[in-house]
Task: structure prediction
Amino acid sequence: MKIVDVKTYSVVYPVQDPFSNGMRWTRQRPFAIVEVITDNGISGWGEGTTVPARRAIDLNVIGRSPFEHEVIWEGLHSQGTDTGAISAIDIALWDIMGKALDQPICNLLGGAFRDRVQAYATGLFRRERKDPTAALVEEARSYADQGFKAMKMKVGFGPEYDIRNVAAVRRAIGDDILLAVDANCAYDRGSAIAVGQKLAENDLLWFEEPISSDDVEGYIEIRRALKVRISGAEQLRGHRAFRRMLQERALDIVQPDVSICGGFTEFRKIAAMASANHVRVIPHMFGTAIRLAATLHLLANLPDSPRANVPFPALLEYDMSENALRTELAKEPIRHTEGIVTVPQGPGLGIEINRDLLTKYG
Result:
């Protein structure tokens, strides 16, 4: 089996109700998707942050077996291809391998420790509202009403906004629901510590990306100063970028994104490094149905860490923001039921792509 073509799709979903994290407003959602086609009719789908250049594809992908994923990865990397683009190719190769062997990707990774995953609702962005606090409280309660036992809220808008609204959300959802916060790198070290000390009074699950993702010394300082788990590294690319962060225990939780870090091939290396350094892995997920399916296969394969009688949950980030390319790109959408999501059981990623949607938003 040889690869004969790679099609690339740059699609954009226009957001009807814009939202903001601590760094920027989101008015549209761009995604990079590839379809890798083989000579026996099997195609694989992948998602990255950019699409690879045609020359890089012709030199390193066309004519190779999809099972040569390591060789293809290194070839693309040596040509200077962005890791976010390699991620898309790599995910598609694993999708093909699973289809060729009639196995879900989690089985190719070594098997599934679980076939259902507890999800946490990611939402609670800042929006243009007359009463932002009331809007956040209503949204948080709606997630609790849907059965979610965990959720994540966006912070990084300054002490007054963050402290007031995190406290209001915690009061609204009660003490039994897990609540994490995410600053999207919007603070410096001092501000992150000052605000974090107040936010930690709300029994937080973790404080995500308080500062720039590459500031290892800053994360160490913040982790030592705050009585809350510190998480991050969703934007790091390639396993070497994670080395110091993991070796120096700068994070309690590392959050590689399969569509950014380099696909399944690199994610496995990052997870192994994290395990060796006793750092928990909870993947980041904020993309289309392709990335969602890929993340579920990774979570199925990640063992409990540490192995305990009552383990810390293997949590799936379940994006609740508006995005038809997440909710409609798979012909059978991946949905939660009472905050629980089932891992796709079909071969490869286990989803069938709605090509009409690629045309609609292309």
User: Anything to note?
Assistant: The mean pLDDT is 97. The domain at 107-355 is CATH 3.20.20.120 (TIM Barrel). The first helix runs from residue 54 to 60.
